[in-house]
Amino acid sequence: MEKNLKKWIRAIQKKADPAASNALVTHYYKEVYAYVYKKTLEKELAMDLTQDIFMNVLETIHQFNDRKATFRTWLYQVAKHRMVDYYRSKSHRQQNLVDTLEEDTLEATGFLDGLLMKFRIEEIEAFIATLDEQRQAIFWLKVVRQKSFKEIAEHLEMPESTIKTRFYTTVKLVRNKFGGIAI
Length: 183
Hints:
Layout: H1 2-15, H2 18-40, H3 43-60, H4 71-88, H5 90-109, H6 111-129, H7 133-143, H8 149-156, H9 160-178
């Protein structure tokens, strides 16, 4: 398999060979999809992000250097960076957190209070984006996706007690930073 992998990579790097591209993607698709699904817990989103990852891989494969890392290591670095970009992206934040709170906020508190809440949410999202990837994932899965601690623990393959500890520590950080807001 290693021989085929090197052949595919060379063919893609030298002449953007569609057959080699297809073979490479087919070979790694399920593995990368499983990684992304584990981070998002959403089938459609995981499929979209996996497609983005492979598009990025094929566009940047000329940067791959087998003397620095194995292809699998490089591929997972690309995937990891895409996941970080996704969780930090404005579209993710707006789609998930702002949209969730916007309707209730604008109706319940009026237009100006709703706008203030949106700005507050953006500040909180920016703060969460500064935390490590694992804390971000736990926070978003719990707050936005409304997953149980048990579900998060299963998908991240961590003890439930660790998930709870990291979540509540993150909540405490947010409350301290933003003056005791309710989460």
